[in-house]
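Pasting as-is:
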Amino acid sequence: MTVVAITAALLAGYLSLPGTARRLGQGRRLRSADRAPTVAALLAASLAVGALVGLAEGTALALGLVLVGAGLGGLRLVAAARRRQRAGARADVVLGLCEALAGELRAGQPPVAALEHCAGLWPDFAPVATAGRLGADVPAALRELGERPGAGALRDLASAWQVSGSTGAGLSVALTQVATSVREQRATDRLVAAELASAQATARMVAALPAFSLVLGAGVGGDPWGFLLRTPAGLVCLACGLGLALLGLGWLERIAVGVRRR
């Protein structure tokens, strides 16, 4: 029993690691700001496991380890949802930046001045503006910034900038086309997000149904909580149920990330 609980806890902890998120479809290196909450959660879980091993035994130890493992898996899902929300917000900022940059060039502003204006709109764009001011490789700076989740449109911007510089084509025309493409892509992303939201809400409701069943069972005179929390067979069922619920939610999250990836 204890072995099953420890295995469940270790599996959930492994799923909460940043490297696992990359292998499950993120495809981007997590920034330190994203890693810090995960590291703090793992440290807290380690302390909790240590306390359980030292203070509890038998079914109490197994129950504690199962709950710690489930908590880590839940935190990983919450962190993934927050990363996805930040990526969506960044994509909206990048769309506004592409439109602003194209508008500045259409208005007759030189490229360096247009880049400086965009850096004022989005502070993270400052390295690109600095590259333009110093005569460095602007497309390379755009591609580096485009590696952040949600900023993939900057890679298209870099390609348009590079093609314009090598062929002599009008930069404002090229960037206007990129801005139009990015706007259409964001509209599609919002439509997909709206369609996925209903599926995700349904999955969360289905994952919560066993808890309602336990409440109903207790209401009709049964003791499902006692079976789950105080018997070896119940703890096995609890560990398997929580693990499968987290696996299903994580699978749906992976699908959402894959569909929205840009």
